[in-house]
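REQUEST FORM: STRUCTURE PREDICTION
Request ID: SP-0412
Submitted by: Lab K.M.
Chain count: 1
Length (residues): 101
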Amino acid sequence: MANIKSAAKRIQIAERNRLKNKSYRSAVKTLMKRYYAALGSYTTEPSAEQLEAVRNSMSDAYSKIDKAVKRGALHANTGARKKSRLAKAYKQIDSMSAAVS
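STATUS: Completed
RESULT:
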């Protein structure tokens, strides 16, 4: 435990920031999992509604990643990498569905 008042305050601030960052990172992971689940259901049973669900979940994930980067919970390159992986997965499905059609 810190003996100096300012050090004790810094410990409290660090803990508060750690919890906020953890919340953002957890939300990003959850939204990415939802996106991949929507993508999987679209591949098994392609339909316009499934495609719309994929696009909505991708938009939600992109938004949360951008917010996490803006707030400093994720590094900018980490956010870019995650968004790139989402786009790559979508592109593979999109090209596969175009080949089938």
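NOTES: The helical segments are 5-44, 48-71, 76-100.
Reviewed by: T.R.
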